[in-house]
Amino acid sequence: MAYTVPTLTDYSTAALERASAELFSALGEEASAVKNEADWKVFRDRWMARKNGVLTQINDLWLKTAPKEAKRETGARVNEIKGKVEARVMLAKDHYENVAALRNVAKTRGLYPVDIRPSDSVDISLPGIRRPIGAEHPVVKTTNEIVRVFQKLGYSVAEGPVVETDYYNFESLNFPPNHPARDTQDTLFIAGQQAKAQRERLLLRTHTSPVQIRTMEKMRPPLRIVIPGTVHRNDPPDASHSPMFHQIEGLAVDTNITFGDLKGTLDHAMKEFFGSSVKTSFRPSFFPFTEPSAEMYVSCFICGGSGRRGSDPCRPCKQTGWIEILGCGMVDPNVFEFVKDNGYDPRKVSGFAFGMGADRIALLKYGVDDIQLFFQGDVRFLRQWA
Ligand SMILES: [Zn+2]
Fold it and tell me: Is pLDDT of 31 > 70?
């Protein structure tokens, strides 16, 4: 049954609401029945004709007769209706024109006859549905920021498998056969491989360093790569340990690379990442695949190197004013021996490598005190980075 504008006797908000809802529902139905220009003209005149169109009728039947105290609210309501009706009439025209254009395209391109149905009527006045788009996980965000610092220096990103062989994870990186890192206490080996030769046994990589060898096998020097990725160790989870965590390593190989290049590159990278006021410091260390090796410290970016926060001791730097941030060193010539045939003759090339924990840096940067929070997937925690 066609819609007719009712006379209003009740001017309460609820009654006005009901009357508008009925009107909008009729508007939607009639709009979706518009198929061509002739339909559309009838539709337009029925709702918008100055003489006896629906809009004119609500003006006469609702607004003019409204009691004084309800005038304002009714006026606002009628204006709202007017806006929506006008928009809907325009939209109905667009719709049948678009459908006609689509049919034409289908016809001229010889496509199958397409049954284009008018879509369900859309109430353009309804608020949209908010779809949260998500955000980078804090560890991913930190990783990306660090990777970008090295990309600006001309480094490319290299990646490799998480399930590795003993050869790539240990042997080619100069780990002696009885090095403690090879112990099952630290490394997660795939079970049931006793029959295989040791170098072929599969394990979850304990560092991203195998990608250094894999990349040197494929690409000749000069080489500058940064390697982000997940690694696994047999560590029981606690506030600062997780059996799965994230590393970012880097490798630069060329003729005449010196320890000075290493220091300059890493000092620059830390200033880019933590801010130009941080200082860096290197202390001797040991890694099987670099010689000499060092640990790099940055001045504490939380207390500014003072070791104190107001009258409290600074916990992240243990009051020393310095935070250990990465391990680094000159690539051990023994490592180059494994890729010598691809241009890495240790008598001709030299290089430096470095590695850091992305999770640990994210903990420090965002002042989070439990690494487990990063991996529990609690949206209330993660939403802080959205
Ligand atoms: Zn501090």
Answer: yes
Instruction: Give me ligand 1 centre to Cα 370, in Å.
Output: 18
Q: Name residue, tokens 């940067």.
A: 365
Q: Which two tokens stand for residue 249?
A: 């390593």
Q: What is the largest CA-CA distance in the chain?
A: 100
Report how far Cα 160 is from the mean position of its chain's Cα atoms.
21
Helix, coil or strand: residue 256: coil
Asked if the model's pLDDT at residue 110 lies above 80, the reply is no
Measured in Å, residue 323 CA sits from the centre of ligand 1 at 8
Q: Which residue has the tokens 């779809």?
A: 131
**Residue 277 Cα, ligand 1 centroid: separation in angstroms?**
14
The reply to whether the predicted model has a pTM over 0.85 is no
Cross-strand bridge partners of residue 295: 283, 327
CA-to-CA distance for 20 and 91, rounded, in angstroms?
Answer: 19
Instruction: For the chain, give the number of residues.
Output: 386
CA 232 to the chain's CA centroid = 23
From its phi and psi, is residue 99 left (phi > 0), alpha (psi between -120 and 50) or beta?
A: alpha
Closest CA to 225 of 168, 157, 153, 159: 157
CA distance 195 to 17: 79
